[in-house]
Specification:
Blueprint (H helix, E strand, L loop, with lengths): L3 H14 L5 H9 L8 H5 L5 E6 L2 E2 L3 E2 L6 H11 L3 E5 L2 H4 L3 H9 L5 E4 L5 H10 L3 E5 L5 H13 L3 E6 L2 H9 L4 E5 L12 H5 L8 E5 L5 H9 L4 E4 L1 H4 L4 H11 L2
Parallel strand pairs: 1-4, 1-10, 4-5, 5-6, 6-7, 7-8, 8-9, 9-10
Antiparallel strand pairs: 2-3
Length: 260
């Protein structure tokens, strides 16, 4: 039976295979952005535990989370609450996101922005640069070792930071072999979409000192953030909890205060 991840990756790889653009056009669009990159990695290396606040409309497992979300309003609230960076979903079919969401959120604040999507080809990395992202996501479970290495190097060549997402110690090892400087541990199983809130704590020790550690998914309040900070994480990436909170700025402040 196909899993969530199988279906999502199949859709993205089919889209990539049918992309009518020439490589020259793809590269040119990325090159047109200019030199306004913001320091995503630096923001996560600041003292304390940084909050990467996510602009997220819906999820495949839960449906609409904030269907009427205004990316500019939410980004401003996240910034006011003290978020270190933004993560913006740009996958349309499964998460309701778009490149416009990313551009709008980034224009509304001064925070660096991660393009949160399923990167499956070089064009996806160029597109992240073109749409205004400061960082790109690579998911170890979605890519082979050559793709991980090549996409990571391409992103670095374009000036983008790279969040390499793993789910266990073996995937952390693959991330590090590809050159990862920022490793995220996603507590959500991308096969079942179930959350294991002990996963990040278990895997933390596999990430060496000097590599930025990011805990993702299943963070529902200050107690979770404090536990992850105690486990050695430099940042937490939080989406659902923030967009459903009713007061994103206050929700970010609560996460930060728990880790101060």
């Amino acid at each position: 039976m196909p899993t969530y991840l199988d279906a999502i990756l199949a859709a993205h790889r089919e889209r990539a295979a049918n992309d009518p653009r020439s490589r020259r056009d793809i590269e040119a669009a990325a090159g047109d952005r200019g030199s306004d990159l913001r320091d995503f990695e630096g923001a996560l290396r600041a003292p304390g535990v940084s909050v990467i606040a996510e602009v997220k409309r819906r999820s495949p497992s839960k449906g609409d989370l904030f269907a009427g979300l205004d990316p500019a309003v939410v980004a401003k609230e996240y910034s006011a609450g003290g978020a270190a960076a933004l993560s913006v979903l740009t996958d349309a079919p499964h998460f309701g996101g778009s490149a416009d969401d990313l551009a709008t959120a980034r224009a509304a604040c001064e925070l660096p922005v991660l393009r949160k999507d399923f990167t499956v080809c070089e064009a996806d990395v160029y597109d992240a640069r073109a749409m205004g992202a400061d960082a790109v996501l690579l998911i170890v479970a979605a890519l082979d070792d050559a793709e991980l290495r090549d996409f990571h190097h391409l992103a670095a060549d374009l000036g983008l930071a790279v969040l390499v997402e793993a789910h266990d110690e073996a995937e952390v090892e693959r991330a590090l072999a590809a050159g990862a400087r920022i490793v995220g541990v996603n507590q959500r199983d991308l096969v079942t979409f179930q959350v294991d809130t002990d996963r990040a704590v278990r895997v933390a020790g596999a990430i060496p000192t000097g590599v930025v550690r990011v805990a993702e998914s299943g963070i529902t309040g200050p107690a979770d953030a404090r536990r992850l900070a105690d486990a050695g994480y430099d940042a937490v990436l939080v989406g659902e909890h923030l967009v459903t909170s009713g007061d994103p700025a206050a929700a970010v402040r609560e996460l930060r205060s728990a880790c101060s």
